[in-house]
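note to self — DONT lose this again. spent like an hour looking for the file last time. sequence + predicted structure for the chain T wanted, 70 res
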Amino acid sequence: MLKFLLGAAAGYVLGARAGHERYEQLVRTYHRVADHPAVQGAAGVVRARVEEVMNGPRHTVDSTANGHRH
C-alpha cells in the first residue's frame, strides 16, 4: 500500500510539472503495468506468501537444554 501511495504522489508531482496530458500518460502507463498478467501473478504469489507467514502455525522455543525435558 505504501508503494502505491508513493507512486501516486510521484505521479501527481510529475503530472503537475509536465501538465495534465503527461499526467494522464503516466496514469495510463501505471495501469497498463499494474494490470499486466505477470505483475498480477507475482502480486498473487507475494500476497499468498505473506498470508502464509502471517497465519502460519505459531512455534514456541523450548527453554530447556536441547529441547529435552528432564
